[in-house]
């Protein structure tokens, strides 16, 4: 969901030039692929038992790597000449990853719900309020985390609030 949101918003922000779509898909896609590769490598190396670790230690390791990956992708996009408005929006990834890492030190929040909430918030802020209907998908993701018994209601709610708040904060500094 964050990859699709990144592509759609980047395309909209740079319209009529289609290169925004490529920047958005490549930037958010590279981060998603790096995180997936790190998760799979961690399983192969025995750092954690599954690609989505629920134990605190492995989860902190993966979130740290995800935060570094997000910052690295953002810096690479900057070096390759990504448009400034896209770089401003792109700060959402590293900020959200760092906030999730900090929250995981203190407790446990739903990363899935947080990422979905940030993506929907980005779509609603940049493409119009009609996209807020996708918060129903965020609710479904939150419910799935509860149904699987990997999070408590408070952890799911905190993830949604964190994703939404981080996105709103970044977008308020990024401009239109």
Q: Which properties best describe this structure?
A:
about 0% strand; mainly alpha; about 180 residues; globular
How would you briefly describe this protein structure?
The chain is mainly alpha-helical and 176 residues long.
Describe this structure in words.
The chain is an all-alpha fold and 176 residues long. It is built from eight helices and no strands. The chain has helices at residues 2-13, 19-44, 56-79, 84-90, 92-106, 111-127, 135-147, 153-174. The relative contact order is 0.13. The mean pLDDT is 90.
In what range is the share of β-strand residues?
under 5%
- Spans of at least 5 consecutive residues with low confidence: none
Number of helices: 8
What's the β-strand tally? Answer: 0
Shape category: globular
Class derived from helix and strand content = mainly alpha
Mean pLDDT: 90
- The percent of residues in helical segments reads over 70%
- Please give the radius of gyration in angstroms: 16 Å
Q: Main β-sheet: number of strands, strand sense, barrel status?
A: none
Q: What is the element string, with H for helices and E for strands?
A: HHHHHHHH
Kindly report how far apart the N and C termini lie: 22 Å
């Amino acid at each position: 969901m964050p990859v699709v949101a990144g592509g759609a918003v980047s395309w909209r922000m740079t319209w009529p030039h289609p290169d925004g779509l490529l920047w958005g898909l490549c930037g958010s896609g590279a981060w998603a692929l790096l995180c997936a590769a790190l998760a799979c490598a961690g399983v192969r190396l025995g750092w954690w038992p599954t690609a989505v670790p629920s134990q605190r230690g492995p989860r902190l390791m993966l979130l740290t790597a995800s935060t570094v990956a997000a910052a690295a992708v953002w810096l690479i996009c900057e070096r390759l000449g990504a448009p400034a408005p896209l770089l401003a929006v792109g700060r959402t990834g590293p900020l959200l990853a760092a906030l999730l890492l900090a929250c995981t030190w203190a407790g446990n929040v739903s990363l899935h719900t947080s990422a979905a909430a940030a993506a929907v918030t980005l779509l609603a802020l940049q493409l119009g309020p009609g996209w807020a209907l996708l918060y129903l998908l965020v609710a479904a993701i939150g419910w799935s985390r509860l149904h699987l018994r990997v999070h408590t209601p408070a952890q799911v709610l905190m993830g949604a609030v964190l994703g939404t708040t981080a996105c709103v904060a970044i977008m308020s500094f990024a401009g239109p």
